[in-house]
């Protein structure tokens, strides 16, 4: 595969499917073989401009389990693009470490790192994309239905970074995704255009609208995320009013398929985008999703750094 994972569009369908297979294999072998040597002696730099629980911990655990290690660089450490330019940070880090994993505001910082580092660069979330989340999401869908063919997923809420990477994933793999957002909060046009073109090739079905009930009708998975993403805190009150009809609650779930499962990338705001009853209820598979971050990223790092 490409040296970097900046967005799902860096992958071919075969590469995505191979990552899913390897994730499943490593997951099934984890108890027997927790320590692997795919990244023996290798070091990853983890640049985080924003907070994180899942992404940071799963990357650090994954590096250790693959025989390597990670150095965490937090929001006040390096001043990416302020204290030092993005290309200079990339070129310096590439002299010392084997991989750069970065969570940033502007997506251009990810592409800037990728374009200037001779080592792999992985997007650990940017304002535009969250491809590692999407790998885990699709793995979770596959785990729960046994196969991907025919999967129907509804996205309810903000047309944000997580939505973009999920959309590209469904478009690449030939799945059905219905996106329901409030007017004015649709995913960016260049993303929907590109995903729609990909869907024509794969046979995926993508639908965009503003009606949550229509989107979830017959869906097997209902996915939501916070209404105000990290960096949008000042828009939270305004968005809360606009997004109220898009809350994933028991009433909305009644419209979905009888066995429909609930997805959320976490962290969640109970009482806003999702009710406690739904996220803590029997249809919720959000912890399987969170667990799968580890398995998907072990497979990703083993592929980028190792001998898989
Ligand atoms: N889903 C996710 O990326 O969680 P964190 O922000 O805690 O890493
Ligand atoms: N859309 C959210 C995802 C957090 C994992 C954000 O960017 O804050």
Q: What's the short story on this structure?
A:
This protein has helices at residues 13-29, 54-65, 86-96, 107-116, 131-145, 161-173, 189-202, 212-216, 236-243, 250-255, 276-279, 286-305; strands at 43-48, 69-73, 99-103, 121-123, 152-156, 176-180, 205-209, 221-224, 261-264.
Bound molecules: phosphoric acid mono(formamide)ester, norvaline
Number of helices: 12
Fold-level CATH name of the largest domain: Rossmann fold
Helix-residue proportion: 40-55%
Describe this structure in words.
The protein has a five-stranded parallel sheet. It has a four-stranded parallel sheet with strand order 2-1-3-4, with helices on both faces. It contains twelve helices and nine strands. The model has no long low-confidence stretch (mean pLDDT 97). It has 308 residues and is an alpha/beta fold. Helix 2 (54-65) links the parallel strand 1 (43-48) and strand 2 (69-73). The longest helix has 20 residues, at 286-305. Helix 2 crosses helix 12, helix 3 packs across helix 4 and helix 6 (161-173) packs parallel to helix 7. Phosphoric acid mono(formamide)ester is lined by residues 52-55, 125, 133, 265-267.
């Amino acid at each position: 595969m490409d040296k970097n994972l900046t967005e799902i569009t860096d992958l071919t369908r075969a590469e995505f499917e191979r990552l899913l297979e390897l994730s499943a294999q490593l997951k099934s072998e984890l108890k027997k073989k927790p320590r692997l040597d795919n990244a023996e002696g290798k070091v990853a730099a983890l640049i985080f401009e924003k907070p994180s629980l899942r992404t940071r911990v799963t990357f650090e655990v994954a590096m250790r389990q693959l025989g390597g290690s990670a150095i965490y660089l937090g929001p006040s450490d390096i001043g990416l693009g302020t204290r030092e330019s993005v290309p200079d940070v990339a070129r310096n880090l590439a002299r010392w470490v084997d991989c750069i994993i970065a969570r940033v505001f502007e997506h251009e910082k990810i592409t800037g790192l990728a374009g200037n580092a001779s080592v792999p660069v992985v997007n650990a979330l940017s304002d535009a994309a969250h491809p590692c989340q999407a790998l885990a999401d699709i793995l979770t869908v596959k785990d729960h239905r046994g196969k991907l063919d025919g999967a129907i997923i509804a996205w309810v809420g903000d047309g944000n970074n997580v939505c973009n990477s999920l959309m590209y994933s469904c478009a690449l793999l030939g799945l059905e995704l219905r996106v329901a957002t409030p007017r004015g909060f649709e995913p960016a046009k260049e993303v929907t255009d590109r995903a729609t073109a990909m869907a024509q090739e794969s046979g995926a079905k993508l639908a965009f609208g503003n009606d949550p009930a229509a989107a979830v009708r017959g869906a097997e998975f209902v996915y939501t995320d916070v209404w105000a993403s990290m960096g949008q805190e000042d828009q939270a009150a305004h968005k809360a009013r606009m997004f109220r009809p898009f809350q994933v609650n028991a009433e909305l779930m009644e419209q979905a398929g009888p066995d429909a499962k609930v997805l959320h990338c976490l962290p969640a705001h109970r009482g806003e985008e999702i009710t406690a009853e739904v996220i803590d209820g029997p249809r919720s598979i959000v912890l399987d999703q969170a667990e799968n971050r580890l398995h998907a990223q072990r497979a990703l790092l083993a592929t980028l750094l190792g001998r898989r």
